[in-house]
Amino acid sequence: MSALASLSCSTFGHGQGDTTSIQAVSRGLRGRCPNCGRGHMFTSFLKVADHCPACGEELFHQRADDFPAYLDILLVGHTVVPLALLVEAEYAPAMWLQVAAWVPLTIGLSLGLLQPLKGAIVAMQWFGGMHGFVRSPTWRHARATARSSDTVEPANR
């Protein structure tokens, strides 16, 4: 089974129910904390918050780097280029009309997809325990256990 397939089937219990990879990614797509789904993941357009304001989950471990931009270019390019070729082949509009249509569409799609893609990638890293998120599943489980038994939260937050 591939790594991506195993992630899509996985769940992680953290005391408030099971968070599946699909839930985590959908929360990331909406710019929400992959743990609780309530707190905002971003403090500005592409700046990931250090911690979730709602549940305190650490998010500063993320290493999305250029992957969101790569996916953005891949998706927008594979959408706009075939459409532009189709319109050119079927209707052959004037060049100024094509520039007036395709440039704003390309810029709008690129900017519109960039933050959701970054959120989804951060959520996948969070769910998979990648990079600094390695200790997060263990810490979340310990924190949830401590809350359920009304003991003190782990100090190594």
Please tell me about this protein's structure.
By secondary structure, the protein is mainly alpha-helical. The chain is built from five helices and two strands; from the N terminus they run H-E-E-H-H-H-H. The longest helix has 34 residues, at 95-128. Mean pLDDT is 84; it is low at 13-17.
Brief overview, please?
The chain has 157 residues and is mainly α.
Global shape: elongated
Please trace the helix and strand order, writing H or E for each element. Answer: HEEHHHH
Question: What is the number of independent domains?
Answer: 1
Fraction of residues in H or I helices: 55-70%
Question: What is the gyration radius calculated from CA atoms?
Answer: 20 Å
List low-confidence stretches: 13-17
> What composes the largest sheet?
2 strands, antiparallel
- Order of neighbouring strands in the sheet with most strands: 1-2
Tell how many strands the DSSP assignment holds. 2
Whole-Å distance between the termini?
Answer: 34 Å
Mean pLDDT: 84
Q: Approximately what portion of the residues adopt beta-strand conformation?
A: under 5%
Topology (elements, then pairings):
Layout lengths: L2 H7 L1 E3 L4 E3 H9 L37 H25 L3 H34 L7 H13 L9
Antiparallel strand pairs: 1-2
Helix pairs in contact: 2-4, 3-4
Q: Can you give keywords for this protein?
A:
two-stranded antiparallel sheet, mainly alpha, 157 residues, single chain
